[in-house]
UniProtKB/TrEMBL annotation:
Similarity comment: family membership: Belongs to the universal stress protein A family.
Protein name as annotated: Nucleotide-binding universal stress UspA family protein
Gene3D superfamilies registered for this protein in UniProt: HUPs
Stored InterPro entries: Rossmann-like_a/b/a_fold, Universal_stress_UspA, UspA
Domain UspA: 2-130
Pfam annotation, one family: Usp
Species of the source: Halarchaeum rubridurum
């Protein structure tokens, strides 16, 4: 099983990552963490660091049965939902685990709609973590 977890830096997205880390451990699944953004800055580096901290806390990267990959996808768009669906199709993910909203008011609207976009496409099972 291949699990995709988009993170945006919000607490909600990191709760989704914690859930996915447990899921990957329980099912010996591959876990891919992605942050989709149109620029690389200090905030982006902090998101990657925090994602790795979550994986370390769950001993995911030390589990030989779980294959992990924390990466950044730089995409010049605010169409996060569509970008997630493209990754699902291109990379053959079996499951997506997402937070239900983002960090702030604008981000909440964007990631909230991204979550809805991914769920409405009905391409793979989606777990939404509050």
């Amino acid at each position: 099983m291949k699990i995709l977890v988009p993170v945006d830096g919000s607490d909600c997205s990191f709760r989704a990552l914690e859930f996915a880390a447990e899921m990957a451990t329980n099912y010996d699944a591959a876990l891919h963490v992605v942050h989709i953004t149109d620029s690389r800055d200090e905030a982006t580096e902090e998101i990657v660091r925090r994602a790795r901290d979550v994986l370390d806390a769950h001993d995911v990267e030390d589990d030989p049965a779980v294959r992990t990959d924390v990466s950044l996808d730089f995409r010049p768009s605010n169409r996060i939902g569509e970008d997630v669906l493209t990754l699902v199709a291109d990379e053959g993910y079996d499951h997506v685990v997402m937070g239900h909203h983002g960090a702030g008011t604008v981000e909440r609207a964007i990631l909230g709609s991204a979550t809805e976009t991914v769920m409405d496409a009905e391409r793979v099972p989606v777990t939404v973590v509050p």
